[in-house]
Amino acid sequence: MNINEKIHPALRELLVASRGYQKAQQELDKAHNTFVDCLAKVERMARASNGPSKEIGDAVGGIVDYYRESEKSKQQLFKAFYGEYILPLETTLEAQVHNISKINKVFSQNLKVKGE
Q1: Backbone angles phi, psi at 48, to 5 degrees
Q2: What is the end-to-end Cα distance of the chain in Å, rounded?
Q3: Residue 1 in 3-state DSSP?
Q4: Distance (Å, whole) CA 19 – CA 105
Q5: Is the Cβ–Cβ distance between 82 and 18 less than 8 Å?
Q6: CB distance 56 to 46 below 8 Å
Q7: Tell me: the pLDDT tens digits for 25-47?
């Protein structure tokens, strides 16, 4: 058993898991955006009112800004990781599987010819 046979299943598992993670992340992003939009609405309403609610609006505004910036950083990090590591790995692995399939087909045909 060569190193490729040991690593190949683990790489496949990583790619499947990363696709699942990406889909889950997209759903989480939607939920996050809905949550932050609701917070922003509370902020606007509080700032438009009179009295101590304006201070609450300012505080909620800071929270909204923090959530938006942290989510933006997380998305940039995920996109960079996915684009720089996972996609190239997937492309390379698919090419290797394709090449191995070709080699296996040629080997099987040669073996069949020798057997006749």
Answers
A1: -80, -15
A2: 29
A3: coil
A4: 30
A5: yes
A6: yes
A7: 999 999 999 999 999 999 999 99
Q: Please answer whether residues 109 and 41 qualify as being in contact, where contact means their C-beta atoms are separated by less than 8 angstroms.
A: no
Amino acid of residue 82: Y
Find where tokens 């190949």 sit: 8
Q: How many CB atoms lie within 10 A of CB 110?
A: 10
Identity of the residue numbered 33: N
The encoded tokens of residue 89 equal: 């790995």
Query: What amino acid is encoded at 92 in this protein?
Result: T
Name residues whose C-beta falls within 8 Å of residue 67's C-beta, 6 or more positions apart in sequence. 32, 35, 36, 39
What are the pLDDT tens digits along the chain (116 aa)?
444 566 678 888 888 899 899 999 999 999 999 999 999 999 999 999 888 888 999 999 999 999 999 999 999 998 999 889 888 888 888 887 778 778 878 888 887 887 76
